[in-house]
Design brief:
Elements lengths: L4 H21 L7 H21 L2 H21 L8 H22 L7 H21 L2 H22 L12
Helix pairs in contact: 1-3, 1-6, 2-3, 2-5, 3-4, 3-6, 4-6, 5-6
Length: about 170
């Protein structure tokens, strides 16, 4: 990660700002694992559509939406030790950053294509969905954190040079 570290930091910051805006705009929290899985699945569906469009700005926004859904899923799942939601969102982001760092140390190879990154993210979404069906909150939270980490990696390695700072048109 040493080379291009700034892109990883920028990607994580971009996701963090998108989360802040999403929480402000949509204060409703996930009622449970099924709601969280639905939100993550819906965001992933948007990513598939965006990648098919072959417009980099669209898939950047879609990856950010997947990351935000993952953060919200991990932070909003029932947790008897949660101090509060702002702290929970921050904790999930920190955990995702640690996953990014450790994965980068273990696997130094950059992703070769958008489709490779899409495949890795899709794998995490499917695993999250399977854990949601089983009702395994602890492992679902861990998978959501890995999902966020992979979304950050996707943005850092595969996004255009400048990440767009405008809202995707409807």
């Amino acid at each position: 990660m040493r080379r291009g570290r700034r892109r990883y930091v920028d990607a994580a910051g971009y996701v963090s700002e998108a989360l802040r805006l999403d929480v402000a705009a949509r204060a409703v929290r996930a009622a449970g694992l099924d709601c969280a899985a639905s939100a993550v699945g819906s965001a992933m569906s948007g990513l598939f559509v965006a990648v098919r469009s072959e417009e980099p700005d669209r898939w950047v926004f879609a990856v950010v939406e997947v990351a935000v859904a993952g953060i919200r899923a991990a932070a909003e799942l029932p947790d008897p030790f949660r101090a509060g939601f702002p702290q929970a969102y921050l904790l999930v982001q920190r955990q995702a950053w640690e996953v990014v760092r450790s994965e980068n140390l273990a696997h130094r190879r950059r992703w070769a294509s958008v489709h490779e990154g899409l495949g890795v993210i899709a794998e995490e979404v499917v695993e999250f969905g399977e854990l949601a069906v089983c009702g395994d909150i602890v492992n679902a939270r861990c998978t959501a954190i890995r999902l966020v980490a992979n979304a950050i990696r996707f943005l850092a390695e595969l996004a255009p040079t400048a990440i767009p700072h405008h809202r995707q048109p409807a």
